[in-house]
Amino acid sequence: MRSLTVLTIFVTLNVVICDPTFWKKSLDHQPKGVWQKKLVWKEEWVKDFKVEKQEIWKTEHKKVQVPVWKTIEVPIWREVKVPDWKVIKKPHVIEKEIPAWKEEKVADWKKITKPIWVPHQVAVWKEIQVPYWTSVNVPVWTEVDVPVWKEVKVPVWREQKKAVWKEVKVPIWREVQKPIWKEVQVPYWKDVQVEDWKQIWVPAWVKEAVPGEKYLGKDQQGNEYTAHDVWRKKMIWKPQWKKIWKTKQVEAFRTEKKQEYVTEKVQDWKVEKVQDWVVEKVQDFEIKKVQEWKKDKKLDWKQEKKLNYKTEKKQEWKTEKKLEWKDEWVQVWKQVKKQVWVKQKTEVWKEEKIQIWRTEKKQEWATEKKLVWKDEVKEEKVPAWVEKKVPVWKKIWKPVWEKVWVPTESHGHGWD
């Protein structure tokens, strides 16, 4: 753009300078000189493009493996119980009688010599206690009154706080529907007097010219009298607008009372149980010491006759036992063998079939979740460098031939 502007200016100057009239006018005022070409370097800005790397984000498709749960059926062995018959041996007892020798006890009489004790009287000296009386001081207990302090429980009244449930009225707010009268505007038709104009015909006297002559009559002398341009009265009906009042129904609104219900909070009382404390007098007992007289025993001595015993020897007859031998027949038992039949139990094994449940493995299919890898395409933003041409302005120096005016002296010649 700048080079074009400079070029346009130079072309314009060349056109002006090459005009002969321009020089003719200016020769008279300018000093003498010649035009010369001069090479000058002019600054110019040209548009250039340079390659720049620019970072962009491009979408790349990347193949990734994502773990997913896949439901597969796997064989499993499950233990089930199956009925089966099993042969078992049970012990069976068989009874049979076999002969056997049994030892029995048989009663028999046997003569034996048995020692016995035979009682007989033997004279012995025996010490006996003979009673006699002696005077001794015997301690006795006598009852005397002794003052003692005794702890007794005296009933006292004590004030105690007792928790009681008391019914109290608690104010609550309750919503009630309360009827109210509300003024509403109700439309109705109302007769009103409206001004109106009615055309009526009113009689009026007007003057009307009678054309021609009109004979009026004769006088006493017989002269006839006539009149010209006589006016006469004529009654006409003249229209007139009269103001009247006309009844017209117009819509009006009157205030009426309409019953409505509004929700209003009223204070009510609710009975609630609250814990209160009342002071009650309870009977308690406190321990006090009071002086009493109790019967106590006092040790005293008194003379008494005591019965004592003294030992004396007295001859008596004592029965003693003497050992003697006496023949006696006693019954004894002797062993005798006797043949008897005894029951012998023989144990044999008998086969029996019983139903049992044996465990078998049965193959079944169970659902199991297995972690597998699934290929998926994932979009990712990856930085990348792209080369772009970016416009830049470059400063260059361009050689240009310019015409310059070089003044010369009077005796010199111009330069072509």
UniProtKB/TrEMBL annotation:
The keyword Signal applies. This is Golgin subfamily A member 6-like protein 22. The keyword Signal applies. Keywords: Signal. Pfam families: DUF4816. Residues 1-18 form the signal peptide.
